[in-house]
Amino acid sequence: MDELIKLSNSTLGQLRIEHPRYDRSALTPGIVHIGVGNFHRAHQAWYLHRLMQAGKAQDWAILGAGVRPYDAAMREKLLAQNCLTTLIELDHEDTSAEVVGSMIGYLPIVDGNGPLIAAMADPAVRIVSLTVTESGYYLDAVTKGFDASHPDIRHDAANPDTPRTAFGAMVAALRRRRDAGLDPFAGLSCDNLQGNGAILRQTVVSLARLSDPELADWIERNTTFPNSMVDCIAPATGPTEMALVHDFGIDDAAPVTHEAYRQWVIEDSFCAGRPNWDEVGATFSGDVHAYETMKIRILNAGHQVLANVGEVIGIETISACMAHPQIAAMFRKVQADEITATVDPVPGMTPLAYLDLIETRFSNPRIVDTTRRVAFDGSARHTGFVLPILRDQLAAGRSVKGLALVEALWARMCEGTREDATEIDPNDPLWADLTRAAREARTRPAAWLEQHRFYGDLAHDRQFSEAFAAWLQLIWAEGCETALKRYAAGDKLSQHAAITG
């Protein structure tokens, strides 16, 4: 192999793949993005890069940011290559790549978040966007209201000028802008939350109200928080992904692989202007809710349908789960019978057509998306993605047999061992609590549902609780594959049948 080309501004002209044709030295920042992971670089940064390739949006470049110590490693990698990223697109057969250059800096990560606050207070910054995971918005697990009791929130309320959280930093920057007579920026959540803009507004305004009620009122009156739906599978980067970027002759310390699919639907509510992302494939819509319901319920909940059972029986990737006959049959049945029943069509797409698309995407063996990554933070993902579907099914008087099986498989995974007796490493911020409940539930299934911060009153719903108990007992008595076969065959199930087989 020829010597690799170190990715940097000075070497772009040596690359054999598509790369920025715009003058990156002439770009000026308009967006601060908090949470610079693979998804952001494959998705939002790509849309902006495409506009820049067309000679547009030159004053909307991205400044990356983070608020946790572990973000420093990514900052170091990206700054060493002028914040450029190689994106490698993997469809079922072909591989292509391009270098994206819409990010021009990465702010220092320090206690108190001074550089981040200063950057967001700059009037040139008109959007602050975030990908901080579904569990990062300080929500009460049951009510979905603001959790003012969290230690991070209490810290930021008591120390508003030296906050610990991204939201505290946003509040501090908005305070500076208000005090200087400047307009606010728009807050744009790009996380997989239903009504993510409304949730971001709730977190920012509620936190501001704890220390400065007048500022909270100013934010409510003047700042906008558009809802958005984002979609692109971008797995974690490991040795396989590093080998792929080397195949293109590039030395990139942080390449990103992604599927040959993207979608971004955004509410057009930006108080300080926005790039014309719709010119490069994004959709501005007044009904983001319908799009995000389809995506969150069929794709994100669907990920949980696959990943937990995959972990328990030792299947390492989502595509391998889809290649497993019993898992694939269970996935199709719970989706077609229960999940899609709670989803309305959107322009150009019915729920069942979207399910077909998701099955194709999940089956792509070249997207090495691990069951471990997808199963991470199940306490947030089941409560955010799966349980709302289950509640809607119960409210409509429809079956929850498949969803009860999904929850039983999550409980089985959280016990902490696979069926081959190997250990499942902790994979949730609440892993110790989940494992304790899962182990008690092995002999008393109700112990799992008594985790009221997740299930609330669902523990008292007879239809769900009895189905859950029966599935969990069957899983422990005869294994996951027996349970999957029984479900796919439509067998009747009782707790007695689960115990005796």
From TrEMBL:
Domain Mannitol dehydrogenase N-terminal: start-end pairs: 30-278
The protein's GO terms of the molecular function aspect are: oxidoreductase activity, acting on the CH-OH group of donors, NAD or NADP as acceptor
- InterPro entries per UniProt: 6-PGluconate_DH-like_C_sf, 6PGD_dom2, Mannitol_DH, Mannitol_DH/Oxidoreductase, Mannitol_DH_C, Mannitol_DH_N, NAD(P)-bd_dom_sf
Residue limits of the Mannitol dehydrogenase C-terminal domain? Answer: 287-475
Q: Which UniProt keywords apply?
A: Oxidoreductase
Q: Does the keyword Metal-binding apply?
A: no
What's this protein's name?
Answer: Mannitol dehydrogenase family protein
Organism per entry:
Sedimentitalea arenosa
